[in-house]
Every structure is written in C-alpha cells, then in structure tokens.
Amino acid sequence: MDPVLALLAFAVLAVLARLVALGVARHRQLRAPSLAAAADQRALRAREGGAPDSAIAVDSAAVIEPRVVRTPCPRCGGHVHVVEHGAALVDDHRGTPRRLRRVLARCSPCGRSFETWFEVRGTQLD
Ligand SMILES: [Zn+2]
Questions:
Q1: Shortest CA distance to 116 belongs to which of 93, 100, 92, 97?
Q2: CA distance linking residue 57 with residue 21, whole number of Å
Q3: Centre of ligand 1 from the C-alpha of residue 51, in Å
Q4: Is 0.70 surpassed by the pTM of this model?
Q5: What confidence score (pLDDT) does residue 32 get?
Q6: Which of 1, 23, 28, 74 is the most exposed place for a label (fewest CB within 10 A)?
Q7: How far is CA 114 from CA 7, 8, 41, 53, 68, in A?
C-alpha cells in the first residue's frame, strides 16, 4: 500500500474514533444527569440570591449588573458576564406577586450559567 494512502487512512480512522468517543460521552451526559449535577444545582439555588425566596435587596436596579459581574462564579471562581437581565413577577406564597429582577449570568472559564434574584427596595417613581 502507498505510505501516503496508509497515513491518510489512519488519520481518517483516528478522527472517526474521536467522533464516536465524543458522541458516546455526550449520550451518557444526556441520559444520566449525575447526582453531582443535581447537588450543584441545589448549591446554586441555596446561595444568597440563588432563588426568588432569597432575593438580594438593593437600593437601585443600576447596581445589579455591576454586582453580578463582580461576584466570582460559584463553581470555579472565574469571571462571569450578564446574559439576560429583566423584571419578573414571582408569587410570594401569600397570593401577592413580588416584582423582582432576575439576572442570568454565564461564567467565561467553565461555561456554567446561573441566575441571581434581586429586589429593588429604593425610592421608585412608579
Ligand atoms: Zn465558572
């Protein structure tokens, strides 16, 4: 066999083997969300501002995004950036909706996304 052809065939096989390995890893990830992932999710919700019930009180909406960006990723300590920031009405368990701010942030190094909840308690003009 031509050595160039053999080398080419080997390269193609190596790429195919890598693709199959990646596919299997992805399939496992989708089928069985691990206990560690569930615990990770609980830890994110348990931190201050990790859920509507523990929304962080602030005086102005203007301080929210700088605060999120200053706070390191709860998973790896990396730098995070804001993906979404909006208002949300959340039931306060007594039938009265609370007006909160929800920020979805993403960590640049580890790719983890997580939300942080805020309640603006400053003087509002509306
Ligand atoms: Zn991270």
A1: 100
A2: 47
A3: 19
A4: no
A5: 64
A6: 1
A7: 46, 44, 9, 16, 11
